[in-house]
């Protein structure tokens, strides 16, 4: 039987698009390539229609990733879809623009000399973190070898609130993860706890500017000072990598007084996601090293560039160049003032919305959005004793209206505590935030008005 032919029986392995074309009656197999293709308009419509089932990204308050760019950015990025970032010789101007972005970011992060700063764009912070982590491992190994010491047992010190990319880094590169767990109402690492885990096999300490769990900044300067004392006592120089996935593009604009970046000599590398508060669509991250000495030469490959030489530092090979161009567009279009204004507005929305949510009797705020514009809350302990709902129920109820506002447990040692989080981005206006607040109130009323209800414990599978 010809499996492509229409039949009255519709199985789960075919698509029968209604809108693609009125006359279209043919089934399209989902998991098997058809022998013959179809007209471009039809293929476009089939996929376009199916994607309507994806959530509406403006209501996705779970993601940190950019869901809106202006039309000119969209136009520029569509025109440059064909550019491959790795072909520095074929697309020398794109390569040149990447270098300008690295220097601008290095200056934003107060590198000692941003003109000679060294770094790369990546596919996202995960790749950038791998590169920063590898540099730490390589430098530690060289130090140990030079001292005639063993190199078999490297460890990395970080909070248990790290993003999953650091667990991957440790597993892929055979490094023992040493985690500062949460305690009471501390959900990040601090210097005192971190120092209990540091020893001569520590390749470095990861400090996060903008924890994904609650949006808090970790105390980079405090950790740096503690490591200075440690070096004075032991002679061991333990570097810091700052994971600024979100905060790397927030702190320079909203909290310039916080000393977290290359102003601290111990900070050897910093990553950030261009596609988070760098305001570019998904597919770009950055890692910048303090200076040439912070990046071991063995990790660097060289590619030809207009007959010259350019460094290639990456795990991926081919990747889109248009994301880097989108980043440069934002830098030119917005300037420092534009970034400051946009993020300040997001922070104003975050603070107002968080304070309104904090005033609702069932909830207690954990953070209010005053670091990065991200905040979370938990159930009030008294209220929870007789509550007919959990935060998971609120998340599910909000989803009926299209809002994605995830609930999840806090990290190791405090995973008994379930929180609910909102990530405020440029496209969440005060008006839209008020609509969310009304929907949260309606959800509470809905559950409270039920004669009885057992609070759900199902987290719906959210992961960071
Ligand atoms: C999002 C995030 C990452 C991973 O970033 P991607 O750009 O999604 O790869 C790493 N660390 C932190 C703190 C994050 O928030």
Strand order of the largest sheet: 3-9-8-7-6-4-5
CATH architecture of the largest domain: 3-Layer(aba) Sandwich
Name the ligand types: pyridoxal-5'-phosphate
User: Quick one: overall form?
Assistant: globular
List keywords for this structure.
464 residues, alpha/beta, Aspartate Aminotransferase, domain 2, Aspartate Aminotransferase, domain 1, globular, binds pyridoxal-5'-phosphate
How would you sum up this structure, described in words?
The protein is an alpha/beta fold and 464 residues long. It has three domains: 52 residues, no CATH class; 259 residues, Type I PLP-dependent aspartate aminotransferase-like (Major domain) (Aspartate Aminotransferase, domain 2, 3-Layer(aba) Sandwich); 106 residues, Aspartate Aminotransferase, domain 1 (Alpha-Beta Complex), CATH 3.90.1150.160. It is 35% helix and 15% strand. It has twelve helices and 15 strands. The strands form four sheets. Strands 3-9-8-7-6-4-5 form a seven-stranded mixed β-sheet, with helices on both faces. The chain has a four-stranded antiparallel β-sheet with strand order 12-13-15-14. A two-stranded antiparallel ribbon has the order 1-2. Strand 10 and strand 11 form a beta hairpin. The N terminus is likely disordered. The chain binds pyridoxal-5'-phosphate (PLP). Pyridoxal-5'-phosphate binds next to helix 4.
Helices, strands, pairings?
Layout: E1 14-15, E2 28-29, H1 40-50, H2 71-79, H3 92-108, E3 118-122, H4 125-146, E4 155-159, H5 164-172, E5 176-180, H6 191-195, E6 202-208, H7 220-234, E7 240-243, H8 251-254, E8 267-273, E9 285-289, E10 301-305, E11 308-312, H9 322-359, E12 363-365, E13 374-379, H10 381-384, H11 391-399, E14 407-409, E15 418-423, H12 430-448
Parallel strand pairs: 4-5, 4-6, 6-7, 7-8
Antiparallel strand pairs: 1-2, 3-9, 8-9, 10-11, 12-13, 13-15, 14-15
Helix pairs in contact: 2-9, 3-9, 9-12
The structure holds pyridoxal-5'-phosphate.
């Amino acid at each position: 039987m010809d499996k492509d032919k229409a039949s009255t029986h519709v199985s789960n392995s075919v698509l029968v698009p209604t809108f693609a074309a009125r006359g279209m009656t043919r089934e399209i197999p989902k998991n098997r390539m058809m022998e013959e293709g179809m007209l471009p308009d039809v293929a476009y419509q089939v996929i376009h229609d199916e994607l309507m089932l994806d959530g509406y990204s403006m209501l996705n308050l779970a993601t940190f990733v950019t869901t809106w760019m202006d039309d000119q950015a969209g136009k520029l990025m569509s025109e440059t879809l064909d550019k491959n970032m790795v072909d520095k010789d074929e697309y020398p101007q794109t390569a040149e623009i990447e270098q300008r972005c690295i220097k601008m970011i290095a200056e934003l992060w107060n590198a000692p000399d941003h003109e000679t700063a060294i770094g790369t764009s990546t596919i996202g912070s995960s790749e950038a973190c791998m590169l920063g982590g590898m540099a730490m491992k390589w430098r530690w190994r060289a130090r140990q070898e030079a001292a005639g010491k063993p190199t078999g047992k490297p460890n990395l010190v970080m909070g248990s609130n790290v993003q999953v990319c650091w667990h991957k880094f440790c597993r892929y590169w055979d490094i023992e993860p040493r985690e500062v767990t949460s305690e009471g109402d501390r959900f990040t690492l601090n210097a005192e706890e971190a120092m209990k885990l540091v020893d001569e096999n520590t390749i470095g300490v990861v400090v996060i500017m903008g924890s994904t769990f609650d949006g808090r900044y970790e105390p980079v300067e405090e950790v740096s000072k503690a490591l200075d004392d440690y070096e004075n006592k032991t002679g061991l120089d333990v570097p810091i990598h700052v994971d600024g996935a979100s905060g790397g593009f927030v702190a320079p604009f909203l909290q310039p007084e916080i000393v977290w970046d290359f102003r601290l000599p111990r900070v050897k590398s910093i990553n950030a996601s261009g596609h988070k508060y760098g305001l570019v669509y998904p597919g770009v991250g950055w890692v910048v090293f303090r200076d040439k000495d912070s990046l071991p030469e063995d990790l660097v490959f060289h590619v030809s560039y207009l007959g010259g030489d350019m460094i290639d530092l990456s795990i991926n090979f081919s990747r889109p160049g248009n994301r880097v161009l989108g980043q440069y567009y934002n830098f030119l279009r917005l300037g420092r003032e534009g970034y400051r204004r946009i993020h300040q507005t997001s922070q104003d929305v975050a603070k107002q919305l968080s304070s309104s949510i904090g005033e609702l009797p069932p909830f207690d705020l954990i953070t209010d959005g005053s670091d990065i514009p991200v905040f979370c809350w938990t159930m009030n302990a008294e209220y929870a004793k007789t509550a007919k709902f959990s935060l998971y129920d609120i998340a599910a109820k909000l989803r009926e209206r299209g809002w994605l506002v995830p609930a999840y447990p806090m990290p190791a040692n405090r995973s008994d505590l379930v929180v609910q989080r909102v990530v405020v981005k440029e496209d969440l206006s005060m008006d839209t935030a008020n609509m969310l607040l009304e929907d949260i109130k309606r959800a509470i009323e809905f559950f409270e008005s039920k004669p009885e209800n057992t609070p759900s414990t199902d987290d719906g599978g959210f992961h960071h």
